[in-house]
Amino acid sequence: GKAWKDFKYKMEIDFAENTVDITDAYLEYAGWDPFYLLVGHAKTTNSMEELTSSRHIDLVERGGFTDAFNFNRRIGAVSYTHLT
């Protein structure tokens, strides 16, 4: 969702096997365009392959590197830029 002018948020909850798990919950600030700041519980930014849904990757399997180190969602802060 979007809040105010420069803030975005995401809250994704997984209801499975009689449990409730929060997969993503973060707040993103986009007021310093093209720089962004994301704070919360989200996927770690290790590779584009890991961030992309399995519906949209080119190969059947993901690279062994990302599986070997067990990159999952973590609580933290990320700053990044998106140049178009």
What are the defining features of this structure?
84 residues, mainly beta, 2 helices
Your description of this structure?
The chain has 84 residues and is mainly beta. It is 11% helix and 52% strand. It contains two helices and five strands, in the order ββββααβ. It has helices spanning 48-51, 64-68, and strands at residues 2-3, 7-16, 19-32, 35-43, 73-81. Strands 1-2-3-4-5 form a five-stranded antiparallel beta sheet, with no helix packed on it. The model has no long low-confidence stretch (mean pLDDT 81).
Write the layout of secondary structure elements.
Elements: E1 2-3, E2 7-16, E3 19-32, E4 35-43, H1 48-51, H2 64-68, E5 73-81
Antiparallel strand pairs: 1-2, 2-3, 3-4, 4-5
Q: Strands of the largest sheet, in order across it? A: 1-2-3-4-5
Number of strands: 5
Report the helical percentage: 10-25%
Report the principal-axis shape: globular
Sheet with the most strands, sense and barrel status: 5 strands, antiparallel
Q: Rg from C-alpha positions?
A: 15 Å
The quaternary organization reads as: single chain
Figure out the total of helices. 2
Give, in order, the helices and strands.
EEEEHHE
Q: Structural class, from secondary structure content?
A: mainly beta
Q: What amount of the residues lies in strands?
A: over 45%
Q: How far is the first residue's CA from the last residue's CA? A: 22 Å
Mean pLDDT: 81
Low-confidence segments, given as residue ranges, are none
